[in-house]
Amino acid sequence: MSFPKERNGLPEHGGAPLYTALVRHGERGRASFHTPGHKGSPAALPHGLMSLDFTELPDTDSLYDASGPILKAERKAAALFGTARTCFSAGGCTLCIQAMLRLAAPHGGKILCSRVIHRSAVNAMALLGLEPVWALPGGVAEAASRPGFAAVYVTTPDYYGRLMDLGPVAAACRAHGVPLLVDCAHGAHLMFTQPVLHPLRFGASITADSAHKTLGVLTGGAWLNVGDARYAAGAKRAMALFGSTSPSYPVLASLDLAREWLQAHPGAYPPLQKKVEEIRAFASSRGIGLPKGPCDPTRITLNTASVGLTGVQAAQRLRNAGIEPEYADAAYVVLIATPFNTDGDFARLKAALAELPVGAPLSAEPELPPLPPVAAGLREAVLAESEPVPLSAAAGRIAAEAACPCPPGVPVVMPGERITREAVRFLRRYGIPGINVLK
Ligand SMILES: Cc1ncc(COP(=O)(O)O)c(C=O)c1O
Prior knowledge:
Layout: H1 17-28, E1 31-33, H2 69-81, E2 85-89, H3 92-104, E3 109-114, H4 119-128, E4 130-135, H5 140-144, E5 151-155, H6 166-176, E6 180-183, E7 206-209, H7 211-214, E8 222-226, H8 235-242, H9 249-264, H10 269-285, E9 299-303, H11 311-320, E10 323-325, E11 327-328, E12 332-336, H12 343-355, H13 378-383, E13 386-390, H14 421-429, E14 434-438
Parallel strand pairs: 1-10, 3-4, 3-5, 5-6, 6-7
Antiparallel strand pairs: 2-8, 7-8, 9-12, 11-12, 13-14
Helix pairs in contact: 2-9, 3-4, 3-8, 10-12
The protein binds pyridoxal-5'-phosphate.
Pyridoxal-5'-phosphate binds at residues 92-94, 118, 120, 155, 159, 183, 185-186, 210, 222.
């Protein structure tokens, strides 16, 4: 679905650069294969939501002290997800991640973290004084079998749509009575696919779901889904610790509407999954690579390096053909498809893929270097004074920020780690010029 034409009837305000850029972007009419999941479709949300931009009033309830319509709406969402408690966020999944970590480890401690992690979680751990212990995604289950963690934190699906095998991780967490926290920013819709692939069904204790990314929700709308009843009572307080006291009511209302839409359209996902499968098969028939292993059945992730194009080059060609992808890197283009994409969008995408030139594959991704040694605490590294240095001067220094070349989308260096020569060599291959280090 390209954003509807009415948006193009918006008045001109030449002195407002951001507004003007948004209007111009809408006028290009590209098929949206990016967030937000509503794709501008009136089937997802009424365009008049601005008229509902109220604040906390006796009629409208209060997000962090909910006892009226917000509480009712949250309870309906909890019933849909089968949770002990679901809290609305107008501050994105970031707010849910902050709250999730606070809930699970209120007194600090070590968090076993998969290295595939969004910076919001790294920052939240720094603010909360939590100590991450890193494991590569394939090693989380084994690491979780060791005692001593306050929680285990993983991201699934990842940005490319790859799904982690949560069963063994959940079993290890259960054995130690440790909560399994899942950043499910890209997977809110997985409760509605066939089969159901949502982490709550595979033993997650709490998930943070960025509803706006893949469902018919305004940007910023997310759910904190508390599956484990032990964490239900404290969930709101944990959200209030970080959340704005002025949440957007249109965003909150869009979460309520999306939940209603999902209940009214129980068969929405299989037809979408079929369209995505067709696009994947077509791409594959042209030599374009697809991620290996279990994947979100609605995500279109194309390895165009296998036909000689970087993801960034391929994305530009797609843009020229009227398709706006979600993300592109050195090898992949990622497209987010939702039930609000039209058949016309898929036809346009297929035609654009048919026009991509097919050449010799680009060189394969280099092997990830071993995880560097930890030299400073995360909180110290994130909050201390830092300075930028070129890569040539980085070896031996302590990183103040993560360096995450994509692919593979796994940080080679995290804040607090001593930068190794292997890490420098790896980063150089991606053309990364420098990094912030502790002074
Ligand atoms: C894996 C992951 N987690 C968390 C977030 C943060 O979500 P939000 O933008 O809804 O705050 C993102 C955003 O891109 C993400 O990709």
